[in-house]
Amino acid sequence: MRRNKVVGVGAVALTLGLALSACGTTEDGDGGGDAGGGDAACDVSLAFFGPETGPAAGLGAPIIDGAQLAIDQYNEDAECEVGYEKFDSQGNPDEAPNLAPEVASDEAIIGVVGPAFSGESAAAGPIFADAGVPTITPSATNPTLAENGWDTFHRALGNDATQGPAAAKYIQETIGSEATFVIDDASEYGAGLAGIVEDSLGDVVVGTDTIQAGDTDFSATVTKAVDSKADTIFFGGYYAEATILIGQLRDGGFDGQFVVADGVKDPAYLEAGDDAEGTIITCPCIPDTDPAVAEFAEAFEAEFGSAPGTYAAEAYDAANIFLDGIAEGIDNREDMLEFVNEYDEAGVTKQLAFDETGEPTDVHVYSYTVEGGEIVPEGEIE
Prior knowledge:
The protein is α/β, with parallel strands linked by helices and 382 residues long. It has 2 domains: 10-158 and 287-353, Response regulator (Rossmann fold); 160-283, 3-Layer(aba) Sandwich (Rossmann fold), CATH 3.40.50.2300. The protein contains 12 helices and 13 strands. The protein has helices at residues 10-23, 33-36, 57-75, 96-105, 118-131, 160-175, 188-201, 219-227, 239-251, 291-304, 312-327, 333-341; strands at residues 45-50, 83-88, 109-113, 135-136, 180-184, 205-210, 232-236, 257-260, 280-283, 344-346, 351-353, 366-371, 374-380. The protein has a 7-stranded mixed beta sheet with strand order 6-5-7-8-9-12-13, sandwiched between helices. Strands 2-1-3-4 form a 4-stranded parallel beta sheet, sandwiched between helices. α1 packs across α3 (57-75), α4 packs parallel to α5 (118-131) and α6 packs across α7. It is globular. The chain starts with 9 loop residues before the first helix and ends with a strand. Belongs to the leucine-binding protein family.
């Protein structure tokens, strides 16, 4: 039976809401899953696969905690607690092939929240597919990941084939750009997204360039961008490079609009200070101010002492899909994969269901702006 994952409303009801999430209820009010039916699976675990340390750890932390909250809620009254294993890839596609076999060899792990990034997803995906390990990434957005024939792959958010055109639409219709320069960081994620934005913008693009992740001197790219007379620059990449890049662009004389995507939506980007002000960020991640996630955000802050970061809610949804299966007694990868493939339930972020390639059937893209030293949601890009 599907668990009731509704989080308690308000401070007074918060504790009650967490308990209800853990024990589950059925539509007729009887206990579901382990608490009522006594048929929940035992001796099983979920795993996180992504950056826990390293330069991209800021994007991994909310995913870790989002899944942790779901598991903690489930375990609060469970007769058999679900384990939670973390596999720290540092977001590095070179590390992923060495780490994925550790997940595959632990048969107690029947679901993976992740991999977090596109590059490591491409590297680890074949290994998970061969081992039959169901995965639900809350954050990897490269469209080609769903084109590899991995029946174990699922994505809890829209891919860059939807985010890229949405970003281009914002650049053209909201900003009104007449000349956009496109930069990428050569990563699977950044280059892929930048290419989609470039194609979507068409003749508006006045130049492109590529930087390398880990570099700190972007003067050659800054010169090209400034010389292009662009009024807008789009960057496909992560926050570590974006923080440096925007400072060097401003120092180099660029005073136009800077547009980035979900890989930059991290508080660490705000370390750029005044240079970051006005930056537009696109993301297929729902704002934590949205009424649909307000109760989740309240529970998250109660447990971790801070507001949920990027992809925390998507990770919470991903973990809860697996936990729903465990509550119904699923204790092996084969049955869990079938359960995930057929899943169609309301989550915190959207209606959670997948097509035959593992893509979500419900997709939204949102815009944010850096204002007053904070990342502030603007709304959905329609």
